[in-house]
Structures are given as C-alpha cells and as structure tokens.
C-alpha cells in the first residue's frame, strides 16, 4: 500500500484490469487500493475493433493519471500515453518492491510487525527496495527503525544474497545564456546536492548527471536542481533552457 491515499496527476501507476465494458475499462490501482477508469480513446490511438486485443481481465498494466476527483472518488487513466520505457521501468520497480517485501517478511515472520515496519520505512524512503539497497551499504540504517541486532544481521545476509546492486543514471542538458561573468556562472552552477555532477560541454551548454538506485527519485532530484539553476540564472539577468534527457 502506498503512503499516499491518492496518486498525483501525471503519475504512472500499476493497475490490474477488473472489468471491461463496451467503451470503458475498470482497473484497480494496486498501490492505492482505488478504482480507476480507462476509456476506449485512452486505450490506443485510432479505431479499436476489439478492446480485448489490448487488455483482458486480471492483466497487470501501467497507466498514466489524467484526472482525479476526490469528492466523487473518480480517477481517469490512460493506457496509451505510457511509453514502452515507462512501462518497463514501473514493472521493474514493482518486481523489486515485491522482492523486498518477501525478504522482510521472511526475516520478520510476525505479519503485523512486518507490515508496521514496512509502513514506517516507506514513510521515510518511499520504497522498501530503496531502503534495503541503501542498508546493504550502510547497515547502521537498521537502527533508525529499531530493528533488533539479530534481525538486522539476517536482513543484511538476505539483502546481499537477493538484491544485486544496480545503478541508474539521469542526465539533463542545460543552457545558460547572457551571463558573461565566469564567476557568476560558477555560482549559478554550484549545487548543494553532492550526488549531482556538473560538466561543461561548450558555452552555453552544461550537463547535469546523477547516479542513483531509483529512477523516479533521481529524476526528482535533477528536476529540483534545474529549477534552482533557472532561478539563479534569471536573477543574474540571464536566460535559461534545460530539460531531462
């Protein structure tokens, strides 16, 4: 279960197809325990002869959140607005999370205790998998959640066996125009995020890059840095362009 009650607009969510009507597909948002709908127009572009050529009951699919009406409890989704890359990334994230849950449930057999621990970890790290991968490199993180020493040792052993290190990279190309002072540009590009590297390409082009373990979180960090650089550039009287690759 996700820590949030509802997803955000534009978020990609994992769904399970519940029922198919003539022009509407009803799905369950797996992480939110909510029901959403996908109209025929949002299944695929062009004319659809048979909706079951694309989705069938009990099939797990990835959708994009288009609209949310919390008063009525309606969530409108799109299947066709999700790229193959986005589908693969979310399904991969789902499999990792299920694997992480299985590891913790094995080490903490009391279901209520395990569920409470998972909820606490997700409040801090969003994904259980992210926490376990970080704890693999820094076992002291187990102390944040009062995990007993014996269980910590068993968790660490299971993590090393089941979770393989896999890094992802997020990059963003930016342009800083009409700022002619080298010192001002250095100040604009100075970042407090030690994980972000700034590389000079050729005036006025620069590259931001970040190595992480979770694509969504890394993308969020890069986007936040882009906004900060944009603000500093405009304050210096310059022009800014930038986007994540």
Verbal overview:
By secondary structure, the protein is α+β, with helices and mostly antiparallel strands. It folds into 3 domains: 71 residues, Nucleic acid-binding proteins (OB fold (Dihydrolipoamide Acetyltransferase, E2P)), CATH 2.40.50.140; 78 residues, Orthogonal Bundle (DNA polymerase, domain 1); 77 residues, EIF_2_alpha (Alpha-Beta Plaits, 2-Layer Sandwich), CATH 3.30.70. The chain is 38% helix and 27% strand. A 5-stranded antiparallel sheet has the order 3-2-1-4-5, with helices on one face. Strand 2 and strand 3 form a beta hairpin. Helix 1 runs antiparallel to helix 4. It is flat. The mean pLDDT is 90.
Observed structural traits:
OB fold (Dihydrolipoamide Acetyltransferase, E2P), 3 domains, 6 helices, 245 residues, flat, DNA polymerase, domain 1, four-stranded antiparallel sheet, alpha+beta, five-stranded antiparallel sheet, Alpha-Beta Plaits
Calculate the terminal CA-CA distance, rounded to whole Å: 30 Å
CATH class category label of the largest domain: Mainly Alpha
Radius of gyration: 22 Å
Report the average pLDDT across residues: 90
Shape by Cα distribution: flat
Major sheet: 5 strands, antiparallel
How much helix is in the residues?
Answer: 25-40%
Poorly predicted segments: none
Any idea what the CATH architecture of the largest domain is? Answer: Orthogonal Bundle
Strand order of the largest sheet: 3-2-1-4-5
CATH topology of the largest domain: DNA polymerase, domain 1
Total DSSP E strands: 9
- The total of helices stands at 6
The domain tally reads 3
Instruction: Indicate the proportion of strand residues.
Output: 25-35%
Helix/strand/pairing class, anyone? alpha+beta
Q: SSE order, as H and E?
A: EEEEEHHHHEHEEHE
CATH superfamily of the largest domain, by name, is Translation initiation factor 2, subunit 1, domain 2
């Amino acid at each position: 279960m996700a820590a949030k009650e509802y997803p955000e607009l534009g978020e990609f969510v994992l769904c399970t197809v519940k029922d198919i009507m003539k022009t509407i597909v009803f799905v369950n948002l797996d992480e939110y325990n909510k029901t959403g709908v996908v109209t025929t127009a949002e299944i695929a572009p062009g004319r659809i002869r048979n909706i079951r050529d694309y989705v069938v009951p009990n099939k797990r699919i990835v959708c994009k959140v288009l609209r949310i009406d919390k008063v009525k409890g309606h969530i409108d989704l799109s299947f066709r607005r999700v790229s193959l890359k986005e589908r693969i990334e979310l399904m991969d994230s789902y499999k990792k999370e299920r694997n992480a849950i299985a590891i913790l449930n094995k080490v903490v057999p009391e279901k209520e205790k395990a569920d409470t621990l998972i909820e606490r970890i997700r409040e801090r790290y969003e994904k259980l998998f992210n926490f376990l991968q970080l704890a693999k490199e820094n076992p002291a993180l187990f102390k944040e959640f009062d995990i007993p020493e014996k269980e910590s040792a068993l968790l660490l052993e299971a993590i090393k066996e089941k979770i393989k290190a896999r890094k992802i990279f997020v990059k963003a190309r930016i342009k800083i125009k009409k700022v002619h002072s080298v010192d001002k540009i250095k100040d604009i590009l100075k970042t407090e995020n030690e994980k972000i590297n700034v590389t000079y390409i050729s005036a006025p082009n620069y590259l931001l890059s970040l190595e992480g373990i979770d694509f969504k979180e890394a993308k969020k960090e890069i986007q936040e840095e882009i906004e900060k650089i944009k603000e500093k550039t405009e304050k210096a009287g310059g022009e800014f362009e930038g986007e994540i690759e």
